[in-house]
Amino acid sequence: MSAVLGISGTYHDAAAALVVDGHVVAAIQEERLSRHKNDPRLPFHAAEACLAYAGLAAAALDRVVFYEQPFDKLERVLVSTLEVFPRSLRQFPRAMASQLGDKLWVMDQLAERLGVDRAKVTAVEHHRAHAASALFVSPYERAAVLTVDGVGESVSTGLWRGDGRELTPLGRIEYPHSLGLLYAGLTAYLGFEVNEGEYKVMGLAAYGEPRFRDELAKLIRVEPDGWFELDLSYFGKLANADLGFGPKLEGLLGPRRPPYAPWDLSTERDQRYADIAATLQLVTEETLLALAREAQRRTGFDALCLAGGVALNAVANARLAKEAGFRRVFVQPAAGDAGGALGAAILGALELGDPRPGPLTTAALGLPADAAAAMALAGELGFSVKRSDDIHTVIAERITRGEIIALCTGRFEWGPRALGQRSILADPRDPDSRERLNRAIKRREPFRPFAPAVLADAAARYFPGAPDDMTPFMTTVCPCPDQAFAAVRHVDGTARVQTVTTATPALYAILEAMRAQSGHPVVLNTSFNGAGEPIIASEVDALAFLLSHPIDGLVVDDVLITKRPG
Amino acid sequence: MSAAARTRPSAIRSRLGNRLRTIGRLLAHFATRQKWFLLPLVLVLLVSAVLLVATSGLSYVAPFVYSIF
Predict the structure, then answer these.
(1) Is B60 domain-assigned?
(2) How far, CA to CA in Å, does A268 sit from each of A144, A272, B62?
(3) Same-domain pairing of A270 and A345
(4) Distance between CA A524 and CA A462 in Å, rounded?
(5) Domain that holds residue B20
(6) pLDDT tens digits for range A486-530
């Protein structure tokens, strides 16, 4: 029996995950504690928080496992930079500063800062960590596993056979041919920030028509078995690390969209960009479908697990579940690089002889909220504070009459989705709530959809196809035929639904109260954060949000806090 | 002299030992992968890296960086 800490970081979405005796005890992204969105720095805050939650000292760790092999990565960066020399001359010093000045020593730094023996610090392959993060917390004993992201050490896409405690590689696609790179390049072209704006591209795609198929066919050539190849000339031979695409792409698709310009989809210009986003989404889906069908053919299994940043594309996941030939599909909530920490920890634990963890039933793997501390601080701030024995009914009543309520309860979530522990809740039938949330509270692009949470036992009535293995973690979309749910229904008639069971007790009770009051156990559920901020972690973050945003109330566990009595 | 100050030289020795072992593993990595042609470049760059660390010339940059990260 052992205690293993998994670590991801130094690129984006740093995280720590702790597995003790084969159980996932805690998993925390560094951004939640540092309050720096997508924080790439080695996650010492998160690591210490995981250990403190478990009541373990660092010296008690049997192993610390980093989520990628630093030497392999350095080798790839050196070789790929030399391949495009002298075009890469400008980025070479930065690449080397990053690799040799920092990343090369990452395992030494982990040992020294955490205070563990250097011999206990090891590393695993990036895509193996991704694959482990999906398979070993999935409900499946055996599954095909597909890992798809920008790039790990040198691999961008991996196909695995997962059986019990074993992950066997079946195929790989190497950098620079990368679906993540294609998506990121066009995300940059569309004026969004790479590693952050991909969600926006996915939301925007629903507003467009995929009429640029011929053009995108020049960027990526996909074989029927899913093997694909990018035409690197459109990406400037990857020699410009600031831009991500080359002038040839603008020659093909027209001028890039200026970053940060306000969106107006009634204009021909922005509609064209939406059409490009729609085509990119379609190409991504079709490539993933080809890969998944190949995975099914080669494994013969009826279940598929996905991981890697591309696996956060909920729209593509829905198509995979329907069309790839698998009976079941699973995507864990932190499918991106943060999830690599979980995979690394599990791989370390398995190697030490621990059992495989059980299926993940909740994403609440962070630190708990403290209602007493919230009451004390709210009192000092002059807020109205009311403790209630029936707080869930109070929340449901307020939401039903059009209020927007922030919820901070239990342990915060693992991954980029708010799943009922750090959520902002509103009436899903009220389009005004959506407008108010988008413009006044979240301050984000008007085309971005909000998601619904629904009781699992009633999900099929509102969202055909739900629940499935992905809906508890909001990693897929389902049809939303009832137009009455205007605030959570995307323009394409789908919703990124979360199905809720007693594994998420507070949200479950709120939805039961919603059912009693409105007849519908459905609520709008969006992440509890402001624009450009990480999701709230502590009750202090939550109160700071209440101070600075026009929400109608904040609930910390069983305490309702409002700016004015009411 | 405080306990922290007394342990400092040993901590520095330990860190230096870790770094030297990492350099040894790195060179062995390139040797076993038969990437000998990269070794001179790596050695020169390692010296540069020491200078970079010494001058704190590092910062986290994350625009479009797959090609360098």
Answers:
(1) no
(2) 43, 6, 32
(3) no
(4) 13
(5) 3-54
(6) 999 999 999 999 999 999 999 999 999 999 999 999 999 999 999
Question: For chain B, what is the domain count?
Answer: 1
**CB atoms < 10 A from the CB of A87, how many?**
16
**Are A325 and A447 found together in one domain?**
no
- How far apart, in whole angstroms, are the C-alpha atoms of residue A151 and residue A155? 6
Q: Of A13, A39, A78, A174, which to mutate for an interface test with B (greatest number of B Cβ within 10 Å)?
A: A78
At position A57, the amino acid (one-letter code) is A
Q: Can you tell me the distance from the alpha carbon of A435 to that of A431, in angstroms, rounded to the nearest whole number?
A: 6
Give domain status of residue B45, yes or no. yes
What are the pLDDT digits (tens) for A455-468?
Answer: 999 999 999 999 99
Give the tens place of pLDDT for each residue, A4-55. Answer: 999 999 988 999 999 999 999 999 999 999 999 999 999 999 999 999 999 9
Residue A268 and residue A406 in one domain: no
Residues of A within 8 A of B62 (CB-CB) are 11-12, 38, 40, 194-195
In sequence order, what DSSP letters do the residues of A385-427 get, joined into one string? EEE-TTHHHHHHHHHHTT--EEEE-SEEESSSS--SSEEEEE-
Q: Is residue B40 part of a domain?
A: yes
- What's the complex ipTM? 0.78
Does an H or E element contain A486, and which? Answer: none
The shortest CB-CB distance from A242 to any of B53, B58, B64 is to B64
- Is position A161 within any domain? no
Among A12, A302, A261, CA closest to A143: A302
A140 φ/ψ angles, rounded to the nearest 5 degrees: -110, 140
Q: Domain tally for chain A?
A: 3
The separation between CA A179 and the C-alpha centre of its own chain, rounded to angstroms, equals 17
Whole-number pLDDT of residue A339: 97
pLDDT of residue B65: 45
Largest CA-CA distance found in chain A, in angstroms, rounded: 69
Task: Calculate the average pLDDT of chain A.
Answer: 94
Q: Are residues A21 and A102 in the same domain?
A: yes
pLDDT digits (tens, 9 = 90+) for A174-218: 998 999 989 999 999 999 988 888 889 999 999 999 999 999 999
Same domain, A213 and A80: no
Min Cα separation B52/chain A (Å):
6
Packed helices B3-32 and A106-114: angle between N→C axes, nearest 10 degrees: 150
Query: Pick from A343, A315, A336, A358: which is nearest to A503 by CA?
Result: A358
Backbone dihedral angles phi then psi of residue A223, each to the nearest 5 degrees: -85, 160
Identity of residue A272? R
Closest residue to B19, CB basis, from A12, A98, A105:
A105
If asked whether residues A57 and A93 sit together in one domain, one would say yes
Q: Which sequence positions of A are flagged as catalytic?
A: 12
Given CA atoms B14, B18, B23, B24 in this order, what sign does their dihedral have?
A: positive
Residue A293's domain comprises 179-331
